[in-house]
Each structure stands twice: as C-alpha cells, then as structure tokens.
Amino acid sequence: MQPLSATLKRLVVPVLTGLVTALAILQWAPGWIQPARLNPATAITLQQSGQSASDSGKVSYAAAVDAAAPAVVNIYTRQTVKRKHHPIFDDPQFNQFLQKAPDHQQRMKSSLGSGVIVAAEGYVLTNHHVIRSADEIVVALRDGREANAMLVGSDSEVDLALLKIELPDIPVITLASERSQSVGDVVLAIGNPFGVGQTVTMGIISAIGRNQLGLNTYENYIQTDAAINPGNSGGALINAYGELVGINAAIYSQSGGSEGIGFAIPAETAVRVLTDLITHGTTIRGWLGIEVQEATPALLHQLQLPDALRGLIVTGIYPAGPAEQAGLAIGDILTMINDQDAANARRAMNQIAALRPGDSIDLRLLRGGESLHTRAIAGQRQSQLKQP
Fold it and tell me: Residue limits of the PDZ domain (predicted)?
C-alpha cells in the first residue's frame, strides 16, 4: 500500500496543471470561445434589403400588394328610385307641404363594389351586377381621388362591365400570363368588403374551369379560398407577383359571408370582353345554332343506345344556322368538337363561344350508329347585352 501523501500528490498535480492551462487559454486566446459573429458581407446585404438577421426568413406578399393595390378602386353607384304613389299625395292640404320637400317622390339608393384599372386610358373592369341599373357611377381611387365614370359597355352573360374615367397619372395593374395559373398557386383578393376600406385576403387557387354553377350563361371560373365578401365584387384576384389573375365575382355561401368558396372570372376572359367592348361595342361570340342535351346513361338506355357512349344529343337546330348549313340533324350525337371531347354541354358551349364568326368548327358525330365527320362555320351569337 502506497502512503497517503503519495496518493494525494498523484491526484492533485494533474488537476492543478489543467486549471493553469485553462487560465492561460482564457487570458491569451479569448476569440476561441467567443460566440459566432455575423459575416460582414451578410450584414451589408441584409441592411441594403431592409431586413435584419432575425427576419431574413420572413415570407411576405407586401411587394405584390404594393404593385397591385393602387389599381384596385371602389365603385359607388347611385340609382333614382321612385316611391310608390299614395292617395295622400292627391290631398291638396298635405300636398302643399310635400311639394316643399325636394324630390318627395324619389330617393337615392347607393351601392358599393370594387373595380380594377386595366389600362392607362382610364378603363376600369368590374362586374355587371355592380353597376346594373345605375344612374350615376363614381370611381374612388386608393389615393383619395374620385371621378365620374362612363359606362363603355356591359356583358350580363359573363357578368363583366367596362367603365372609363378621366384622371391623370392613374395606376394600372399588370396582367398575368394567359393560362399560367395552376391549382395550388397562392392568390390574394383585393377589394372593399362591407365598405370597411381596401382589404387584402390570401388563399390558393382551389380549382380551375368551374362551370354549371347557375350563376351566368358563360361560366369558366377560378375557384379560390381567399376570403371574398360583399363589396369585393369586381375587385382583383392577383398572384404572388402582383399580377391580375381574375376579377372576383361571386361566392358560395349559406351564411351570406365567406365560407372559403369564391369565384373569379379569369383575366384572359375579362381582357377579351374589354377588347370587344372597346372595338365593337359588344361582345363577339361564336355560335353553332343548335340545342343539345348531354347523353346520360339513363337517356342512352331510353334511346336504346350503348351506355358507354358519351356526347351531346342534338335536340334542336336553328333554321339557316351554321349547324343546319353543315348538315346536322336532330338526333345526331356530337362526340368531338375541334378534336375535344363533347361530353359536357357547358364546356362545349364555352368552347364554341370562344370562337370568332367565320372560324371553322370540326364536328364528329354519330347518326344511326354510323360515324360521320362534317365542318361548320361559326356564326355570331346575339347576346343579351346592356349598352350605354
């Protein structure tokens, strides 16, 4: 057994040596244990971009809103409404007092919607239902300026209207590339819901090409879960770059408020209507001149036709129309229109309406079990339009 003093000596000497070494490190090389510092180049980059180290990972759509929001306007409409006549108005005793009140048989009714400035010439797109039956239309910009608007034209079948204002240096929204949108893309809705002031909400594109909703004659909506409320009608649906994707038009709601199902008219549709209204004063749509019914399994069974058949059964033909001139007959089953499946009546109607008068329409059909091919020339559909 070793003596106790020898054992303590073997334990204490290494400990003291370690303490001396540690003190030397702290004294001579403090940089070895200092926390990591931000690279100067990185700090300069963050300072120039207006960011700090703490918020450099922040995701924001402020730039998109700043680019688009100035071109989104509020639309006020005024309508003269006559009061119902009452026998008391014929009483001279009361009438002498009523006549002193101006417009005692009339009152002004105001409504509120939104719109989007789409051209430097002062053209503003909005919904037809926003300005319907208005006697006076006022456009209010985000910068506080206001101007009376002239109604250039309105298309009730797609729920769009075109206004024109006269103001200098007006902001104009940028249009997104045609058909560049996909389900899942981030979008923002800008408008004036409930009259509270310009508001931005965010969501995604939930679906594209929604139709058969019963909202309008021609339906090809972008569906979004960005909150759209009363007053947003006619406002902008933009992408993450601040470009116009669509014109907000409607919501599906059981409560009257937003429930995450909103609909916008695609920007390319709106621009086409705008161009037609400016150039022709009316919307130009292709027309085939037929009435059809979708070939459902139940109907095919009733007609003793194969249940797997898909197409549109011709149920009516307009005299001297493009379909009659192309040789179509009642009972024909259209299977293809310009090399696209013809199983959906609403989609087929939109497809034909997108054509110009004089365009060729390639038709494939079944007649008495025989496959036939013919070609028609699109006519012009006479739309129910509201003109100024």
Answer: 277-369
Q: Which of 258, 283, 308 is at the close of a domain?
A: 283
CB 388 within 8 A of CB 153: yes
- Enter the tokens of residue 186: 């981030």
DSSP-assigned states of every residue in 6-54: HHHHHHHHHHHHHHHHHHHHHHH-GGGGSPP---HHHHHHHHHTT--TT
233-251 pLDDT per residue, tens: 999 999 999 999 999 998 7
Instruction: Kindly state whether residues 224 and 334 are assigned to the same domain.
Output: no
Rg (CA), the chain: 34
- Same domain? For 290 and 239 the reply is no
The tokens 């909005």 sit on which residue?
A: 126
Q: Give me the domain span that covers residue 163.
A: 59-85+115-283
**Predicted structure pTM score:** 0.72
Query: What one-character DSSP code corresponds to residue 193?
Result: G
Please state, in angstroms and rounded to a whole number, the distance separating the CA atoms of residues 353 and 177. Answer: 21
Same domain, 234 and 336: no
Query: For this structure, is 332 an active site residue?
Result: no
Of the residues 155, 159, 225, 332, only one is catalytic, namely: 159
From the candidates 111, 114, 233, 258, give the one annotated as an active-site residue: 233
Q: Which of 114, 128, 129, 225 is catalytic?
A: 129
Q: Is 159 a catalytic residue?
A: yes
Examine residue 26 and state whether it is found in any structural domain, yes or no.
Answer: no
Question: Can 155 be counted among the known catalytic residues?
Answer: no
The full DSSP string for 275-289 is HHHHHHSS---EE--
